[in-house]
Design a protein that fits this description.
Number of helices: 8
Strand order of the largest sheet: 3-2-1-4-5-7-11
CATH superfamily of the largest domain: NAD(P)-binding Rossmann-like Domain
CATH topology of the largest domain: Rossmann fold
Number of strands: 14
Oligomer: single chain
């Protein structure tokens, strides 16, 4: 397939680009910078928020858009999320109208808001941040649009990502930086909350596999499907990396709005990965 990847040099994007290329697809990588992007990709410097309705033709009539670009992803109440919402929608709408029949977009568990237990495509969404609200609105708008324009929409809902920790902004990246700074203690919460953890490398595989098939579309959890406590995952991470650092449990209080346990239902992605339709 000829694939147009936005946010190609981002934390997720660079791994997705590589995975597409490794599987023999042609990749057009789009971003502000191309540092860290696989050299086998063709780079495209275009403003996806320009409103240009001829962009699809200009970049060469692609088979698939994988839209990963998103500003301030780790600043959940940034005004940028709602400020850019219409631009995201117009870009993807223009691509669909022009003839792109496959559109994959990065979703987030933050669309759901507070929830306890497994999340699937029918879980009600009541987001609690500007980031979650914007993602949720984009998803709802695109689901309506996909019915109207008859294209395959893959809403790829991600959870807690680790790996390639020099480029991330998660707690795993913060611990990695603390070790490199020579610290031997790391202030922490109780770590009792359970989450769905997935490595960036497995996530990239799931994104590519999910967006290059047409049997399962709509909301797809890209996840492990397994609830693991934050403390357990962090301890595994420290041991796996050979770090000499101690967690200071209880240094920070657990956030009141964090669920005691939330994870993705992995039925769809497991079927896709196993091609079990």
């Amino acid at each position: 397939m000829k694939v147009f990847v936005t946010g190609a040099s981002g934390y997720i994007g660079r791994h997705v680009v590589k995975e597409f290329l490794d599987r023999g697809h042609e990749v057009l990588a789009c971003d502000f910078s191309f540092k860290g992007v696989d050299e086998r990709a063709n780079t495209v410097s275009v403003d996806i928020f320009s409103g240009d309705d001829s962009l699809y033709t200009k970049i060469g009539k692609i088979d698939l858009v994988v839209h990963l670009a998103w500003s301030d992803g780790f600043v959940h109440n940034s005004p940028t999320h709602m400020g850019n919402l219409s631009n995201h929608f117009i870009f993807l709408r223009n691509m669909a109208i022009a003839g792109c029949h496959n559109i994959a977009v990065m979703g987030s568990m933050h669309e759901v808001g507070y929830w306890e237990g497994s999340i699937d495509e029918n879980t009600p969404c009541h987001p609690l941040s500007q980031y979650g609200i914007a993602k949720n609105a984009l998803r709802e708008s695109l689901l309506l649009l996909s019915s109207e324009l008859n294209f395959n929409l893959y809403w790829l809902r991600a959870y807690y990502i680790y790996g390639d920790d020099h480029h991330g902004s998660s707690i795993f990246a913060k611990i990695t930086q603390a070790v490199e700074d020579g610290k031997n203690e790391f202030p922490f919460t109780t770590g009792k909350n359970k989450c769905d953890f997935i490595s960036i490398y497995e996530l990239a595989k799931q994104i590519v596999k999910a967006s290059t098939q047409d049997k399962i579309t709509g909301i797809i959890n890209v996840c492990s499907g397994k609830p693991v406590s934050l403390a357990e995952q962090i301890q595994w991470f420290i041991k796996d990396r050979g770090f000499n650092i101690k967690l200071l449990y209880g240094a920070y209080p657990d956030r009141e709005y964090d669920s005691p346990g939330v994870w993705g239902n992995s039925d769809k992605i497991q079927a896709i990965m196993e091609q079990n339709f």
